[in-house]
Amino acid sequence: MRLQNKVAVVTASTRGIGAAIVETFTKEGAKVYMAVRNLEKAQEMAERLNAEGGQVYCVYNDATKQETYKTMIEEVAQKEGRIDILVNNYGGSDPRKDLDIKLTTYEDFIQTLDQNIGSVFIASQAVIPHMAKNGGGSIINISSIGGIRPDISQISYGTSKASINYLTKLIAVQTARDNIRCNAVLPGMTATDAVMQNLSDDFQEFFLKHTPIKRMGTPEEIAKAVLYFASDESAFTTGQIMDVSGGFGMPTPVFGDMIAMKDKR
Fold first, then answer.
1. Inside any domain, residue 60
2. Is residue 81 exposed (0-12), middle (13-18) or buried (19+ Cβ within 10 Å)?
3. Which CATH number do you get for residue 117?
4. Which of 74, 135, 177, 240 sits 20 to 30 Å CA-CA off 210?
5. Which family does it belong to (predicted)?
């Protein structure tokens, strides 16, 4: 019960990593608000977890409507009188438009940055006064390994996540006096429904060839890293960018080919 008596807000939390974070926080005793666009789907998940003894509620948030980040924070703060944990989980891009520097339009590039970076900036800015008033809190940003490992495509997504990494450090430094911590978790390839449905077996195999722990992560494993930053176990940890990717991109660039050669022997 590491989060007992804590109030948490988790954005984009009806599936994948976000849903795993909600379940993990609930098991650890937190009162969790799922900040989502699809309230009906979130309510189904909340009812299931509450039937198991959880305290899960829903609040409206739409990444395309920036004002809803402020309203979700205010709604939770008014109901609970405090917010102890904010997980900024939203992030994405359109793979049909998010290509390389030659093919991506400026309009699509800026739209992705606006939504991904804005989701962190606006929500964090809104929650900080409430956390400060109640003696502190923890902000955790879900970034991506793509924010530190340049790719041959997804220029918008990678740039936005790199910016979120730096923004995490800035928030950590600028709110430390209010006892507010800010850290980021950088998932690698994670076995969410979206990944399993949209990435071919060949691409998955190629990606994992360059991952020392030769498998995908699970949403639950990412959630456990988030739990560390949310709990008092990390009370003296802030501004950290935690790579949770099985070591992807860490070894020599020819790692995958070297392993393949050894396996053939």
1. yes
2. exposed
3. 3.40.50.720
4. 240
5. Belongs to the short-chain dehydrogenases/reductases (SDR) family.
Has 157 been annotated as catalytic? Answer: yes
Comparing C-alpha atoms, which of 127, 129, 128, 157 is closest to residue 142?
A: 157
159 part of a folded domain: yes
Is 263 within the bounds of a domain? no
Amino acid at 60: Y
What residues make up the domain containing 18? 7-198+216-249
Q: What is the pLDDT along the chain (265 residues), one digit of tens a residue?
A: 999 999 999 999 999 999 999 999 999 999 999 999 999 999 999 999 999 999 999 999 998 899 999 999 999 999 999 999 999 999 999 989 999 999 999 999 999 999 999 999 999 999 999 999 999 999 999 999 999 999 899 999 999 999 999 999 999 999 999 999 999 999 998 988 877 777 778 878 888 888 899 899 999 999 999 999 999 999 999 999 999 999 988 877 777 777 777 777 6
Q: Nearest CA to 259 among 211, 222, 215?
A: 211
DSSP letter assigned to residue 54: -
For residue 211, being part of any structural domain is answered with no
Encode 93-132: b = buried (16+ Cβ within 10 Å), e = exposed: beeeebbeeeebeeebbebbbebbbebbbbbbebbbebbe
Taking the CA atoms of 245, 250, 254 and 258 in sequence, report the sign of the dihedral they define: negative
Number of domains in the chain: 1
CB 31 within 8 A of CB 55: yes
